[in-house]
């Protein structure tokens, strides 16, 4: 697989193959903890994924023995000092972390996470920001924020109750619990748990399956689910009506129906 940049200098290695943009977090010596450079690289690649029509799906994973250990707390942590010399974590949220999560959720293309080991703190919520999460059997999801007197960020206080329910979300956040992969699957944080040796092969298969699918439909599904929690039923029904009207006029819908009637695989083009 071709890669851009040298492994020892590039915090996120990107490779495009068959419509799938694979993003590999590349700070294995720090369990892929998120430095400002890593987040800036992620935001760049997410913008590229949004704008490049040849990119139809994204696969996110980590290099080494962990997916992502959260924010890199070394060298003073992610927050630049404010005028009084205190760390301003909110400024770091506004400048780096929150744009990344917003870009992931707004991306009109599916994102698959392959969680290969620890996903701690912001790393756990980075995985939850993806559309489909596959986890290695050795993976664990760890809401570690409370251990350093913070609250879950990168959307964690939104993703957790929507994913595992209110009671579990409160307990996970307040206890800083570490959840093994199979328990995470039972709670709804992961779609599938795989043997470590099979994780990347299966994740690539899934990403390529999505890349060959009806990308207009994926975009509409993401947008509808993103707003479902705050919409009334009437608002959601209206959104479904409007989206279905637009999708029903697409070439991919015509192709999908024709393929269904002819009992052949569909050839979706994103039009």
Mean pLDDT: 93
- Overall morphology: globular
**Whole-number tally of structural domains:** 2
N/C terminus separation: 28 Å
Strand content: 15-25%
Which parts are unreliable, with pLDDT below 50 for 5 consecutive residues or more? 1-8
Helix content: 40-55%
- Shape-level CATH architecture of the largest domain: Alpha-Beta Complex
- CATH-assigned homologous superfamily of the largest domain: 2-enoyl-CoA Hydratase, Chain A, domain 1
Written as H for each helix and E for each strand, in order along the chain, the element string is: EEHEEEEHEEHEEHHEHEHHHH
Strands, total number: 12
Tally the helices: what do you get? 10
**Helix/strand/pairing class, anyone?**
alpha/beta
CATH class division of the largest domain: Alpha Beta
CATH topology of the largest domain: 2-enoyl-CoA Hydratase, Chain A, domain 1
In short:
The chain has 271 residues and is an alpha/beta fold. The chain is built from 10 helices and 12 strands.
């Amino acid at each position: 697989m071709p890669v851009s940049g040298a492994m020892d200098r590039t915090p996120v290695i990107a490779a495009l193959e068959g419509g799938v943009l694979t993003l590999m977090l590349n700070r294995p010596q720090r369990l892929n903890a998120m430095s400002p450079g890593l987040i800036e690289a992620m935001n760049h690649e997410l913008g590229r994924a949004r704008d490049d029509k040849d990119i139809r799906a994204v696969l996110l994973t980590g290099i080494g023995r962990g997916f992502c250990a959260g924010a890199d707390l070394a060298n003073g942590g992610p927050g630049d000092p404010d005028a009084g010399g205190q760390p301003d974590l909110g400024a770091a949220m506004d400048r780096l972390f929150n744009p990344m999560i917003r870009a992931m959720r707004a991306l009109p293309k599916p994102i698959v996470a392959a969680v290969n080991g620890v996903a701690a703190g912001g790393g756990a919520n980075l995985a939850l920001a993806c559309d489909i999460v596959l986890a290695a059997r050795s993976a664990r999801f760890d809401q570690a924020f409370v251990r350093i007197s913070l609250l879950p960020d990168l959307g964690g206080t939104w993703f957790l109750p929507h994913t595992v329910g209110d009671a579990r979300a409160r307990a996970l956040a307040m206890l800083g619990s570490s959840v093994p992969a199979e328990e995470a699957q039972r709670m709804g944080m992961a779609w599938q748990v795989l043997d470590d040796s099979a994780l990347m092969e299966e994740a690539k298969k899934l990403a390529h399956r999505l890349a060959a699918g009806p990308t207009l439909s994926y975009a509409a599904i993401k947008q509808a689910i993103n707003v479902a929690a705050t919409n009334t039923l009437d608002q959601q029904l209206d959104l479904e009506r409007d989206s279905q009207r637009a999708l029903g006029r697409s070439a991919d819908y015509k192709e999908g129906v024709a393929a269904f009637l002819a009992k052949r695989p569909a050839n979706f083009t994103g039009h």
